[in-house]
Request: fold
Amino acid sequence: MKKFNIEHKFEVKSIYTEYARWIREGRLPVNSDWNKELGIKFTVQDPCQIIRKTFGDPAAEDLRFVVESVVGKENFIDMYPNKSNNFCCGGGGGFLQSGYKEERLEYGRIKDEQIQATGATYCITGCHNCHAQCHELSEHYGGGYHVVHLWTLIALSLGVLGENERVHLGPDLQEVLLPELKE
Amino acid sequence: MADGAVKIEGAHKSVFKDKVMEILPDGGNLNSCLTCGACASGCPATGMDNMDPRKFLRMAALGMDDEILDSNWPWFCTMCMRCIYVCPMQINIPQLVFNARRLTPREERPKGILGSCDQAIKIDTCSAMGCSAEDFEFVVGDILEEIVDEQVGWGEDERNLQAPIDKQGAKYFLNQNSREPMIEPEEMAPLWKILNIAGVDWTYGSKGWAAENYCLFMADDEGWEHLTRTSAAKADELGCEVFLNTE
Reply:
């Protein structure tokens, strides 16, 4: 908007900072009890667009606050480097649509190594390009980690994640806090 | 490309680099590179197509415009801005790449990106997958109905789950990646439920709801501006305080 001098009355916000605020204000009663015994490990991919290019490290801190609130501090493993220094996964900039698949997977090699080094079973991505790319990296390089949206885990923690809303979750999370169905 | 040392014959002047410098924000200068290599050492695209960010910038500085035009590397760089983030001189290599993409005639740019950009411009939802306002409304309504019918607690006299489109005066204007309504519609539901529990007053717009912008990746300024303006105009028309990026 700045680039084109587009006048607007609204403010632009990232959903990560809003999730964090709603949790802090007690409006989203999430907790990580469901993962205390399971101990399933999660890492998170900082999307370049939201973190480095727009809102910076404060948004990255909020993202971590949300993730830790939902999966448990002890079950979150950060990749390195991270936040504003994080590497792009290779899904950005139109790479997914450009037809250069081989190059895109080669670009993503370092991201895959970063994710695998955490040993996490799940990589949380907030951005769709990251989601598609990391999912493909997991299959291509054989890492086998699952790639999930952040909203999936928040909803899971709130006990409202429906059975058909779990396509990106592995078998270990298909039954956890499943909401009631009508008869 | 440049194997071994590059010999400069006579005084080459880069038209390309000077052009980019004219439009750089905040008085950015492409001549102040210290050649330290911080950019290249932290770039996942380093080595691809025998190129890296430092080399790319040096080639521009040396006036190797033809070689830059011939390189596919601008399509392998994702313009993630890690290079400028670590650069001690804040040199805007991503902007150089963006403009290098523009050196390729529009119709010869990668077909997938071109198609997605053209599709989005054609339709006022701005959906790169061609999802119309009617399709969107249908899918949203369908998923909402399914949840209310099948899952406990979301009916009108209970939590009253809503997924409004064009709700005047809502606080938040939400965008949504086309992938959801088109490929995985049930993935929209967790977000609606979260917003409902947090007591958030929100709406989608019948126009400009699509979160993706392939015209930006195409280096098509006109298309990029059109898509951004369409979304912004709808959010303002509905009187929303916050444009919430859900990506």
